[in-house]
């Protein structure tokens, strides 16, 4: 890993993963594990959570992008992640718009500041 940056990982629906893969983010680590998971209707919540936790444990991943509607399925695992790296960013999907009130990272950041800080 010396001299290389960190990867972006994606957990998302087919359209989201395809877009990022076409953008060049797809890689396999030395154990031949990909840095993405395409979530389909028959993908179990256990598989999603295990993949998320495996991305957290990988030293080559710096950012995890996850569709917000999928993040809702494993909210407890996302809320338990307190480290800044890898950063977990919730993104919209084609059929599920972004809702800031559901984003746990944004809620956590809002709790760090008060209205007085912005004056």
Automatic annotation (TrEMBL):
<dbReference type="InterPro" id="IPR005772">
    <property type="entry name" value="ATPase_V1-cplx_fsu_euk"/>
</dbReference>
<dbReference type="GO" id="GO:1902017">
    <property type="term" value="P:regulation of cilium assembly"/>
</dbReference>
<dbReference type="InterPro" id="IPR008218">
    <property type="entry name" value="ATPase_V1-cplx_f_g_su"/>
</dbReference>
<dbReference type="GO" id="GO:1901207">
    <property type="term" value="P:regulation of heart looping"/>
</dbReference>
<comment type="subunit">
    <text>V-ATPase is a heteromultimeric enzyme made up of two complexes: the ATP-hydrolytic V1 complex and the proton translocation V0 complex.</text>
</comment>
<dbReference type="GO" id="GO:0045176">
    <property type="term" value="P:apical protein localization"/>
</dbReference>
<protein>
    <recommendedName>
        <fullName>V-type proton ATPase subunit F</fullName>
    </recommendedName>
</protein>
<dbReference type="GO" id="GO:0070121">
    <property type="term" value="P:Kupffer's vesicle development"/>
</dbReference>
<dbReference type="GO" id="GO:0046961">
    <property type="term" value="F:proton-transporting ATPase activity, rotational mechanism"/>
</dbReference>
<dbReference type="Pfam" id="PF01990">
    <property type="entry name" value="ATP-synt_F"/>
</dbReference>
<dbReference type="GO" id="GO:0005886">
    <property type="term" value="C:plasma membrane"/>
</dbReference>
<comment type="function">
    <text>Subunit of the V1 complex of vacuolar(H+)-ATPase (V-ATPase), a multisubunit enzyme composed of a peripheral complex (V1) that hydrolyzes ATP and a membrane integral complex (V0) that translocates protons. V-ATPase is responsible for acidifying and maintaining the pH of intracellular compartments and in some cell types, is targeted to the plasma membrane, where it is responsible for acidifying the extracellular environment.</text>
</comment>
<dbReference type="GO" id="GO:0060041">
    <property type="term" value="P:retina development in camera-type eye"/>
</dbReference>
<keyword id="KW-0375">Hydrogen ion transport</keyword>
<dbReference type="GO" id="GO:0042127">
    <property type="term" value="P:regulation of cell population proliferation"/>
</dbReference>
<comment type="similarity">
    <text>Belongs to the V-ATPase F subunit family.</text>
</comment>
<keyword id="KW-0813">Transport</keyword>
<dbReference type="InterPro" id="IPR036906">
    <property type="entry name" value="ATPase_V1_fsu_sf"/>
</dbReference>
<keyword id="KW-0406">Ion transport</keyword>
<dbReference type="GO" id="GO:0033180">
    <property type="term" value="C:proton-transporting V-type ATPase, V1 domain"/>
</dbReference>
<dbReference type="GO" id="GO:0060036">
    <property type="term" value="P:notochord cell vacuolation"/>
</dbReference>
């Amino acid at each position: 890993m010396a001299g290389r940056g960190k990867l972006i990982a994606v957990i998302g629906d087919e359209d989201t993963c395809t877009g990022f893969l076409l953008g060049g983010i797809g890689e396999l680590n030395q154990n031949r594990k990909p840095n993405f998971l395409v979530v389909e209707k028959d993908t179990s919540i256990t598989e999603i959570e295990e993949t998320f936790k495996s991305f957290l444990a990988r030293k080559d991943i710096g950012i995890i992008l996850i569709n917000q509607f999928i993040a809702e399925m494993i909210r407890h695992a996302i809320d338990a992640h307190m480290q800044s790296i890898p950063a977990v960013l919730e993104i919209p999907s084609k059929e599920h718009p972004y809702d800031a009130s559901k984003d746990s990272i944004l809620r956590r950041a809002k709790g760090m500041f008060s209205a007085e800080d912005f004056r």
